[in-house]
Amino acid sequence: MEFTSRRFKDGLPERNPKPSAPIPPSAKIARDAASSAPVADAHSDVPPEDALDELRELTLSAGASVVGEMLQRRDRPDSATLIGSGKLEELQGAVAASDADLVIFDHELSPSQQRNIERELEARVIDRTQLILDIFAKHARTAEGQLQVELAQLEYLLPRLGGRGIEMSQLGGGIGTRGPGETQLETDRRKINRRIRHVQKQLEDVRRIRRQQRSRRENVPVAVVALVGYTNAGKSTLFNALTKAGVYASAKMFATLDPTLRGVMLPSKRQVLLSDTVGFIRNLPTTLVSAFRATLEEVQRAALLLHIADATSPVALEQQRQVEDVLGELEVQDKPQIHVMNKIDLLPESKRAALINTARVVHVSAKSGLGMDALLYAIDEAITEDPVKAARLRIPQSDGKALALVEAKARVKKRSYRASNVHLEVEAPESVLRRLGEYVISES
Q1: Strand 421-429 to strand 411-418: parallel, antiparallel, or no bridges (unpaired)?
Q2: Residue 17 and residue 93: Cα distance in Å, rounded?
């Protein structure tokens, strides 16, 4: 167990924190005991320090200040308090010493565990799932995003309702109806279930509208390329770099939740739609995956996935595996993917010079623009919709509309003028050649 107390100002640790109130003797004992035991975490596949760093970033994204951190190793969780009575006493001293009013566990708490811990600490206690739900609620902007967050919160709350005793029961008012009737707990559950059904119906309307929009798009041969990746990997920054969309981008986790679609012109002059999606995270709550299914349908319908990862992160491989797990839940893990290693501008020059791009791995810096052309060419090679074909065209000089279409949508390799016609050798998408059908001499 290791406990460290830190003061933060504007999201960053102060160099010389101001002295706090005198520490009670019990808290001193707790801190001394905490500093001498081994460090570990409940997540065996993630180094404890990295898991704690991620929890700290989530906490700062939610708007809180971190004043203390604690790690623990246990063979098995305690059924009553998760961390055991002895460690709970140490935590109680640490909370008293730092005057904390909120304790966040990087582990899902059962309803009884949460109530037991709150009773001992006399402070509000939440788990990692509640923290993520709070961040989602803070950043949801559109009506759809707010509905999805509300559904996830209600589904999380429902099994955690606590009864308030028989004094809250409704009593019958006639012969044969005396005695406890419906408890307040049952009333609350019925209300939440009713609200869940209402929100689900509204989200189904969203899905229906989205399906209609998608069906109209599918009538035009424009492929959808979905950006996926771990939260804070730089998806929104990359989206802005490719589309100039001006989507809000921030270093905070889950800064953007609402899906955005924008068109991008590839080097072949084909048009694709780029879709920015919500970031994934380790142990993403299942309630969020189900609630955001309407948004994540864009991932399921995409022709290509751009899997964005932070090239500077020491746990980049683990983060990519977590993203693959979520893609598996969505049953899209077999879709074509290009792995985009972002933030290479932060790497030392020697490492950056050794990077090699392939058809499936591209190194970029969305912030500085490094590698954007290579990424566009990689997307162009991976997209099979509306294939590019070589063709010879003969267009009358008087048909300005057809000539403008060629200039806008095709790559002209050779041009010559004979009599009143323009003879062209081009590479163009199949859909463009269909529109120019009467002028096509040959194609291959």
Answers
A1: antiparallel
A2: 20
